[in-house]
């Protein structure tokens, strides 16, 4: 429905409603979806979807991401600043225990374990997320997950005081579990609570808060703040703050209405959740859409990973998510983050300004993610993904050229730095957040938890592989090592261009039907769709009549 406001003698206004179909055609023709008001023939048409971005929805997106993806991003960068102090702590503890200094090989091994065990914990978290989500729901899983963050913060903060480097390693492992669960439960929750015309923008809160977490870790790790020998443990104590903020706010926000209706069979709870998230009383259309999706699915119960792998109805959706999530990690951004300082040193920058240059990369990342969130509903997922990967390929190629000529031309290191910033901005323009959105959009309700489990497994295994293999690739190929990532980005762009349909402003059923042809599945005819709608309407009318009879008898 559209609310129409007509001036009456320039002094009073009255409201009335027109049919949705007619007004939608007018606005689609005039391409003014982004406007709050538009004057046509003396009338102001206010599209209802502009009223759907409610405070409740924004709070759920922000605070849900703050205690989840923000912590993931924070942990990606927070260990860089205190690295020397942590290694010194390992050496001091070793001397106290064994009466001799730790060997260089041992301290390198302990440090490598401290960094990489985060990815192993993430894999454990991703594998366990499906079971927890099935039992506790989306919101319940996010709330439980805060306990892992608090426990990790305590272990990491008290490790130095207790003279136990094992506490630091275990704390990083638990923090990885927290991140693995968060990157499955949060995108699922955001995708299910959002109206379709805001689903991409709300989903990008995940990416924006990851980038903000990375940037916050860089800022707090500055020597002027907490990046000092006497204060580095407070970098890890900070982990408890976002988790506690989420625990204070999220319990007062609704659970996913799709989860309540399709998995808990709680129609009253789902209706209340839709009303709060959308800011309107009449949510019959949204309830009908979920009922239609439920009727269209062969299995209403949550399928297992094995069932998902065997199902021909979602084969290409699954392949697309695996390819996209693998490209998300293998496109080379992690190599940039893990080895930025080394690349910048080789590029000719002095040691004193390296922390500030690294800080600028985090700022660019956050800014690019915010811009992507603002334009995703207008441009679409597919163009942003292809543009991001292709741009990364271009700038990685240029970076390779500049690194090979940096010893010959004095100003060449600055071009290398510009390329690093461009790679980061390209990544965050699409590939940095859209893979998580797509994982939620390409699958209907019963397949979604298993899909996120597979996507999370691919994500964390790929993350671990980059951290493990890139040093050897760099040692072998030297300045040509980034060409490996050029190949990954180009192949990913080609695949997405050929296979991925656009998903913006589409229901989950519409997206599934977009893959029906490539999956060689029958597409419902208009008659079948109408029959499905009529059956749902009759069911809803029957329920309303039963409720009326009960009230009459009472």
Task: Provide the CATH topology of the largest domain.
Answer: Growth Hormone, Chain: A
Instruction: Specify Rg, calculated over alpha carbons.
Output: 26 Å
Numbering strands along the chain, what is their spatial order in the largest sheet?
2-1-4-3
The assigned CATH architecture of the largest domain is Up-down Bundle
What structural class is derived from the secondary structure elements?
Answer: mainly alpha
Tell me, rounded to a whole number, the average pLDDT: 82
Quaternary structure classification: single chain
SSE order: EEHEEHHHHHHHHHHHHHHHHHHHHHHH
CATH superfamily of the largest domain: MFS general substrate transporter like domains
Q: Helical residue percent?
A: over 70%
Question: For the terminal residues, how far apart are their CA atoms?
Answer: 35 Å
pLDDT under 50 segments (min length 5)? 1-50, 526-540, 547-554
Proportion of residues in β-strands: under 5%
CATH first level of the largest domain: which class?
A: Mainly Alpha
Summarize the structure.
The chain crosses the membrane at residues 12-32, 53-74, 109-133, 140-158, 170-190, 202-220, 232-253, 318-340, 352-376, 383-402, 414-438, 450-473, 479-500. Helix content is 71%, strand content 4%. Strands 2-1-4-3 form a 4-stranded antiparallel beta sheet.
List keywords for this structure.
single chain, 554 residues, mainly alpha, Growth Hormone, Chain: A, 2 domains, 24 helices, 71% helix, globular, disordered N terminus, disordered C terminus, D-glucose transmembrane transporter activity, GLUT
């Amino acid at each position: 429905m559209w609310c129409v406001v007509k001036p009456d003698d320039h002094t009073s206004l009255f409201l009335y409603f027109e049919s949705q179909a007619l007004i939608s055609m007018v606005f689609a023709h005039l391409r003014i979806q982004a406007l709050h008001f538009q004057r046509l023939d003396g009338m102001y048409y206010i599209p209802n979807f502009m009223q759907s971005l409610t405070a409740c929805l924004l709070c759920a997106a922000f605070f849900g991401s703050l205690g989840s993806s923000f912590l993931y991003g924070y942990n990606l960068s927070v260990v860089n600043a205190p690295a020397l102090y942590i290694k010194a702590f390992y050496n001091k503890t070793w001397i106290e225990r064994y009466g001799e200094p730790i060997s260089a090989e041992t301290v390198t091994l302990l440090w490598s374990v401290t960094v990489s065990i985060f990815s192993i914990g993430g894999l454990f978290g991703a594998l366990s997320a499906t079971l927890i989500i099935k039992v506790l729901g989306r919101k319940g899983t996010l709330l439980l997950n805060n306990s892992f963050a608090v426990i990790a913060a305590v272990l990491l903060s008290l490790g130095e005081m207790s003279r136990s480097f094992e506490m630091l390693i275990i704390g990083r492992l638990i923090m990885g579990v927290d991140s693995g669960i968060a990157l499955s439960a949060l995108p699922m929750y955001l995708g299910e609570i959002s109206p379709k015309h805001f689903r991409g923008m709300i989903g990008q809160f995940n990416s924006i808060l990851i980038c903000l977490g990375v940037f916050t870790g860089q800022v707090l790790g500055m020597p002027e703040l907490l990046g000092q020998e006497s204060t580095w443990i407070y970098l890890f104590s900070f982990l408890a703050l976002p988790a506690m903020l989420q625990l204070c706010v999220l319990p007062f926000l609704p659970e996913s209405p799709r989860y309540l209706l399709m998995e808990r069979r709680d129609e009253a709870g789902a209706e209340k959740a839709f009303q709060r998230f959308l800011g309107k009383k009449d949510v019959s259309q949204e309830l009908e859409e979920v009922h239609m999706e439920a009727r269209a699915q062969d299995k209403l119960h949550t399928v297992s990973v094995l069932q998902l792998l065997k199902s021909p109805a979602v084969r290409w959706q699954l392949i697309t998510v695996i390819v996209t999530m693998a490209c998300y990690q293998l496109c080379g951004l992690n190599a940039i983050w893990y080895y930025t300082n080394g690349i910048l040193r080789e590029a000719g920058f002095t040691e004193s300004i390296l922390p500030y240059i690294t800080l600028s990369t985090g700022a660019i990342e956050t800014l690019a993610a915010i811009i992507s969130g603002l334009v995703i509903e207008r441009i679409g997922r597919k163009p942003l993904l292809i543009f991001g990967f292709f741009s990364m390929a271009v700038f990685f190629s240029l970076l390779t050229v500049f690194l090979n000529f940096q010893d010959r031309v004095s100003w060449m290191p600055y071009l290398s730095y510009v390329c690093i910033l461009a790679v980061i901005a390209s990544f965050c323009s699409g590939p940095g957040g859209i893979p998580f959105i797509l994982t939620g959009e390409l699958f209907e309700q019963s397949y979604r938890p298993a899909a996120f489990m597979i996507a999370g497994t691919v994500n964390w295994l790929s993350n671990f592989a980059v951290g493990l293999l890139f040093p050897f690739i760099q040692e072998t190929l030297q300045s040509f090592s980034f060409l490996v990532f050029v190949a990954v980005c180009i192949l990913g762009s080609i695949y997405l261009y050929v296979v991925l349909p656009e998903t913006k402003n589409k229901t989950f059923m519409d997206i599934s039907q977009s893959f029906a042809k490539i999956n060689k599945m029958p597409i419902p005819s208009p008659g079948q769709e109408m029959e499905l709608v009529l059956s749902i309407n009759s069911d809803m009318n029957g329920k309303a009549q039963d409720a009326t009879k009960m009230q009459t008898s009472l």
